[in-house]
Amino acid sequence: MVELFQSYPLAIVGALVLLALLAGLLLRRGKATRERHRAPDAMDEGVGPAQRNSALINAPSAASKVSLRPVEPVADVAVKVEAEVEPDAFGELAEAVAAQEAATQTDDLTRIKGLGPKLKARLAELGVVSFAQIAGWSEADIAAIDAQLGTFAGRATRDQWVAQAQFLASGDIAGYEAKFGKL
Known about the structure:
The protein has twelve helices and no strands. By secondary structure, it is mainly alpha-helical.
């Protein structure tokens, strides 16, 4: 050890000084964290101020004291519009609205056995969102859909989606459960 000190005196003295500096920094850092001052928090005041201000919170606002003027009755407006529409055109319009509502109706397609959330999302991308749509598929439609289902191709035929959808679209739950089991 003495030979090592005689060979490299500056290196050993430098290492000792470096260790002393590191020890001083570590001790100072630990001391600084203990002496931190905690700033007061709003919750330190307790419940008193919140109870004192509750009268301001519960007081009626100026907006609630404003009176509103009467509005024209809705029935009068409906009579005016109805009088302007021809009876035949109104019937055609009602049929068109009903057809559009039926086309945009979305069903929970995951009720069909073999059709999970991923397939439901893929079918929605393809525009298929109701039991009625699936119930009306032909063999050509099934082939076209299968071509776009990737790894799920063949599921529509194998799991009988069309037959299941026909029961579900008509609301025949008993018939569905008799053929395909419990929903």
